[in-house]
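Batch manifest, entry 17 of 40.
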Amino acid sequence: MTDLEALGTFAAVVRSGSFTAAARQLNVSPAMVGRRIQALEQRHGIKLIERTTRSQRLTELGHEFLARSDAVILAAQALDEITQTGPLSGRVRLSAPATLGTRRLPSAMAQFTAAHPGIVLEMSLSDRRVDLVAEGYDVAVRVGVLPPSSLMARRIGTYRFACCAAPAFLARHGTPRHPSELERARCLLNLNLRPRNRWIFHDADDVPLTVEVGGGIEIDNGEAQRAMAVDGAGIVYLPRDLVAPDLERGALVEILTAWSLPTRPVYAVHPSRHLVPRRVTALIDALADAFRGS
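Output type: structure tokens
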């Protein structure tokens, strides 16, 4: 009978693109990955993966074998879910944007792991949009409108922004009274916004106004942008989660408060499966709790 562990290793190798990447996902050595694939090929008497020093590709039989392997793995997971009634266990891999991961998630994830000590939580914080299937992630937190895909999504919150600057900067340069004044102001641009140089405001009637901003500093890290704003380098348009402590202590001052800023939806997404493991469902519930009321 085929070893489920070997089937899972084969699927990880295919989707991650290499034995080394699969080994990182599975927390084993590349040599162990190689032995499992070799044993699988020997057991069935077929070649599944053609490898060179620089690349790998599935054989024709390998493609069919992968589809059948996925069906077997899903069926085994379904049996586990039906019979598992005790404490949750296993590894869960989570990807989240840096700002949300550092400002919103730590407390919720600490509570989650305390409630489920049998779970190993692997959390990767990056503004890069990972490929959940190819890179082996169970769940990702995404901000903004989602493009069409096979991923399953659950809205868990709302992302809000603030436009602000340090009191010393406003004392030197004046406080803008209308968004159009930002076109002549020194602004710090966030490279993670698309487009980076267009800030949107809504008036009292919810009519949007887009202004083009500049200022000579463009940063791809929100924490660095926040720190520069606190030091008086310019005006920022940043997630409220990131600047809330600075606003509370007066290190930053919110401007143009008669205008509202757009919001973005926050989603928890996971690969489409017939049956989602209980540990993944529990993690998504914990993420929703972290954003409740946002």
